[in-house]
Amino acid sequence: MTQESDGFEAATGDGPTPGAGPRAREAEVRTAFEGLLQIRRLTHTGAGDPASAPAAWERRLPVRAVALALEAAGLAASAVDGAGLRTATGYRVTTGERPATVRVEWLGPPGGGAAQQEERALTECAGVLARLGWEALLYRGPGKRRFLEVEPGATA
Length: 156
Fold this sequence. Notes:
Layout: H1 22-43, H2 56-60, H3 62-72, E1 79-80, E2 86-88, E3 90-95, E4 102-107, H4 114-131, E5 134-140, E6 146-152
Antiparallel strand pairs: 1-2, 3-4, 4-6, 5-6
Helix pairs in contact: 1-3
């Protein structure tokens, strides 16, 4: 959560490290994620487990939903300082190239080893997202860096 914000914002990896202390941040994330699951339960109209398919608001705000899912799973978000320089290694969630998609990368400070961690870390991200009804495909982009393309699953 930033000082300018009046509410919770999931860490996307493109902002500063969240300002709340670790325990306070964990509580905020847990509350937000429990709210996400409750929305899924209340709005689910199909067959199967309501927690396993993204709700309509998640499909409208996929960057927020994917970032919340990753943060709630305990995965580290990358972070940047005021000058835009990476200060922490972790996931970065941005809008995808195609409509309704999200891109997840594993980034960190120069020389921090993010490139060596990315395949394992992105595979872990994909597993977290799959359990929540997102389809995450691993690709290799420019410079041979890997990334996930994420979209709501077919059951959504």
